[in-house]
Amino acid sequence: xxxxxxxxxxxxxxxxxxxxxxxxxxxxxxxxxxxxxxxxxxxxxxxxxxxxxxxxxxxxxxxxxxxxxxxxxxxxxxxxxxxxxxxxxxxxxxxxxxxxxxxxxxxxxxxxxxxxxxxxxxxxxxxxxxxxxxxxxxxxxxxxxxxxxxxxxxxxxxxxxxxxxxxxxxxxxxxxxxxxxxxxxxxxxxxxxxxxxxxxxxxxxxxxxxxxxxxxxxxxxxxxxxxxxxxxxxxxxxxxxxxxxxxxxxxxxxxxxxxxxxxxxxxxxxxxxxxxxxxxxxxxxxxxxxxxxxxxxxxxxxxxxxxxxxxxxxxxxxxxxxxxxxxxxxxxxxxxxxxxxxxxxxxxxxxxxxxxxxxxxxxxxxxxxxxxxxxxxxxxxxxxxxxxxxxxxxxxxxxxxxxxxxxxxxxxxxxxxxxxxxxxxxxxxxxxxxxxxxxxxxxxxxxxxxxxxxxxxxxxxxxxxxxxxxxxxxxxxxxxxxxxxxxxxxxxxxxxxxxxxxxxxxxxxx
Length: 510
Hints:
Blueprint: E1 2-6, E2 12-17, E3 33-36, H1 38-44, H2 46-59, H3 62-69, H4 77-86, H5 96-108, H6 119-131, H7 156-159, E4 169-171, E5 182-188, E6 191-196, E7 214-216, E8 221-223, E9 233-234, E10 245-247, E11 254-255, E12 262-263, E13 284-286, E14 289-291, E15 311-314, E16 319-322, E17 343-346, E18 351-354, E19 375-376, E20 379-380, E21 401-404, E22 407-410, E23 430-431, E24 434-435, E25 444-445, E26 455-458, E27 466-470, E28 487-491, E29 494-498
Antiparallel strand pairs: 1-2, 2-3, 4-6, 5-6, 7-8, 9-10, 11-12, 13-14, 15-16, 17-18, 19-20, 21-22, 23-24, 25-27, 26-27, 28-29
C-alpha cells in the first residue's frame, strides 16, 4: 500500500505500506513503511492498468487504439495510459473510472499527503475490468440509457482512500486525501482543510456544498436524491428545464424531462442533441434538445419541430413559434398555416387569409382551392391514382399525386418509376428522371449516382467517377471529412476519423 506524506523539509514524498501487517491484518492500515517515488505508486496500480489494456486490445479496433493511445502495443499500453494523464488529460471511451484514476495519478505524482493505494481494491477493480464485456453496438436511430453499476469496485474512494485526520491541511483538488467520512474543503486557492463530509440536512447553495449528495433547491439542504428509475419532478411540468427540479436525482443521474424518472444523463429527454439518434427511443431532437414535438406558442427552428407542422416567424415575439392550424378567415402566410390547407390572396384587401376548399365541379383558379387538389380549365375535378396525365398539374401535387409515366401516381414511388424530385421516391433518390437505389459499397458512383448512407464516393485524383467505399471507423487514417462518420482530424501525428458510423459500437470489437 502507499500514501504521500510531507517531510520535515516541507517536501512531499510517497510512503508505501505493506498490504499485510505483521499480525496478519490484510487491511493495509499498518506495517513497515519505506520511502518511494511515484514509479512505485504506478507499480501498485499496475493490475488495473494491465486489465484495462487487455480489455482495449480485446474490444477496440486498431484505429480506436491509435486514436486513444497512438502507437500502442501490449507491451507499452500501460505506460501510454499513464502518459495520457501525466502529459495531458486522460479520457478513455467507455471507462470514466480508469480515466479518473489516471488523472488522479497525474496529481499524485507531484505529491499529495494522505493518499493511499488500497491493494485489495486494486485487485477487485482489475478483476472487474477483466470480466467486462465489449460494448454492444447501439441502435442507429436512438440511444439507450445505461444504469450505473450497483457497487462499482473502481471508484477513486476505493482505489485511493485518504488518511488525513480532521483539521489537517489538504489540497482541494485531485483525489480526496482525507480519511473516510471527511472531505477536503477549499479555503483559499488550492489550500484546504479536512472537515466532516456533508450529510443529509446540511445547508447548501449548490451541489459543490454537498460532496456525494445533491443540493435540494426547494429546501436549501443536502439530500441523497432519487435513484436510477425512481421518480423526479420539475417546478413547472409544462416547462421542465434542467436546474428547476423540485425532486432531484442522485449525483450522476439526470431527470428525464418526459418520463420524469432518474436516468443516464447521456440518454435522457431534456439533454442537448444534434440528431434523433442522440435521444431515447420515441423522443425527437427538437430545437437542439431531446423532447416531444413543440406545441403552438412554443419556439421552433423549422416546421418539423412542431406537432402541427407549422413554424412561423412572430414579429411580436421576435422569434419563430409553432402555430396551430388557423380557421377560415384568419390571416395566413402559407398553406400549412390553415386547417383547410388553403391560404388565399384577397385582391381587395391585399391580404392573405385562410379559406375553405371547394368540392368537385366548383369553379377554381388554382389547385390548392380544390379538395381534390386538381383544378383543370377552371374547374375542380376528381383525380386519383391511375388517372391519365401529361404533367404534374393534371394530378394533385398537394395530395402527393404526381404524373409518372403518363398516369397519376401516389408518391413515394417504387424503383424505376419516373420522377422529378428526390422526395417523390421511396429510396429518396431520383436519378436521370427515374427513382433509383443509392449505390452500395463496391458499386460505381459519380456526381449523379449517390452512395448510400453507409458509404462515400471514393473518386481517384483526376477522375470524375469512382467507387462507393464504406465509411471509415473511428481512428482509421483519412484525408477528407466525407470518408468519416464524424470528421477527419489530426490526432497522434496523423489525420484520423473521429466518430463511429451510426449503429457501430465504440470499442465494440476488432
